[in-house]
Amino acid sequence: MSANNPAELPSEAELAEMSREDLVKLGMKLDGVELVEYPDPWPVKGTRAEKRAERLVALWFAIAALAGLAFIGVFIFWPADYVAPSDPGYFLYSLYTPMLGATLGLSILGIGVGVLLYTKKFIPHELAVQQRHDGGSAEVDKATILAELADAGNRSTITRRPMIKATLGAGAGVMGLGLGVFAIGGFLRDPWKNSDNKESLWHTGWQPTNGEKVFLRRATGDPHEVVLVKPGDLDAGAMETVFPYRDSEKDDHHALSVALKRSDNPVMLIRLRPEDAAKVIKYKGQEDFNYGDYYAYSKICSHLGCPTSLYEQRTNRILCPCHQSQFNALEYAKPIFGPATRKLAQLPIALDEETGYLYAKSDFIEPIGPAFWERKS
Ligand code: FES
What we know:
The chain is an alpha+beta fold. It is built from nine helices and 13 strands.
């Protein structure tokens, strides 16, 4: 409050006697506020126009509530498990994320538009002029500001509009519930429930099955074309992304296509330059994972799982574009910069003497990518 003449201030007893309206006026006066206009937007109560405005506000809050409910429903019931583009059910699966965004967005929009409309239609549009002042607040200021706030609430007429109160409560409540479901929903679902392979986080598509060799396959752009990798295929200092292939999948278009899409399959095959290969430091227990100058590392970043697609030949660094982690290809893809703290998993490879192609001697011997709860290393 600005410098006020104490003689003009009411005593505590007088304050206690004053009505809310008196306190509002007193507060404004003490704050040096001149109230120029404070018109009631609906001087005649209960008109059809007022009811129409009320219904319009309630409609937006109701939309927010319904959209919030839809968000919860989509989050819980919409088919969210991965479906390959060529498989039935892909269309519904592809709509999962857009539906989450659309329903939550509509819920937030409904609350926002409802609040804006309410402010526009029911809050008195006052015009006031106030002088600025310095200093802390005195008791009288605190009392009057509380009265002003209560008065603003009263003049907003929210107390006598049960339909708006109910729909606002429903809209905000359901939206809040939806956000709560979103936050804790991941803890309610069992990620292993319908998984055929209960160890899926520990294994990738490189895991040999039925004793069959898993070869390194190039991506040519045609998901049904099979081109395998021979040692002479890469120049020294080159890198290529490769995927697993089994002879039994030769004519299985679906399996060939899935092998290129499975998220834990991409592997960087790097052929080091001879002078760099001489400097390599190998990880203990993985000394025979390379074939000559060829080293194969999972492409899934150990930070948050982005594809570490960049290989800088000059420095032998593997770079993840998401948060700029860098891994040293000469030292078992150990992280040397950025937020990643774990090396990239190395795939053990060898040459199949019979066919002359490179193959994976086994799956990765450690989980690839970021940490997960059950992972100990
Ligand atoms: S995901 Fe690679 S640095 Fe973050």
